Amino acid sequence: MTLYSRSVRRLLDSWPGKRRFGIYRFLPIFFVLGAALEFSMINWTVGETNFYRTFKRRQAKNYVEDQLQQQQQQQHQLQEPI
């Protein structure tokens, strides 16, 4: 267990910018990982769909449901006696 921790510590300590940037020297790694994740969500398709098609479909479904609910509320308000 100590060998693993020692090698991880050695890898982290060898990363450049420790004195100047401290813990923030790892931000470029996470920026690149986030960009790669976004790229994969846009461009990789499984069958006929990918993340954004599914997301857009869900947004459209929610919009239609909200519009129908608003119409039903308006009709209900018109039918109520004052």
What key phrases describe this protein's structure?
single chain; 82 residues; mainly alpha; 4 helices; 77% helix; 0% strand
Task: Describe what you observe in this structure.
It comes from Drosophila navojoa. The chain crosses the membrane at residues 21-42. Keywords: Membrane, Transmembrane, Transmembrane helix. The chain has 82 residues and is mostly helical. It folds into two domains: 7-44, no CATH class; 49-82. Helix content is 77%, strand content 0%. It has helices spanning 2-14, 18-21, 27-43, 51-79. The model has no long low-confidence stretch (mean pLDDT 88).
List the helices and strands and how they pair.
Layout: H1 2-14, H2 18-21, H3 27-43, H4 51-79
Q: What is the gist of this entry?
A:
The protein is mostly helical.
Q: For the residues shown, what is the average pLDDT?
A: 88
Sequence stretches where pLDDT stays below 50 over 5 or more residues: none
Distance between the termini: 76 Å
Number of domains: 2
Number of strands: 0
Q: How can the largest sheet be summarized? A: none
Coarse structural class: mainly alpha
Radius of gyration equals 26 Å
**What is the overall shape?**
elongated
Strand fraction: under 5%
Keywords: Membrane, Transmembrane, Transmembrane helix
InterPro entries: UQCC5
Transmembrane segments: 21-42
Protein name: Small integral membrane protein 4
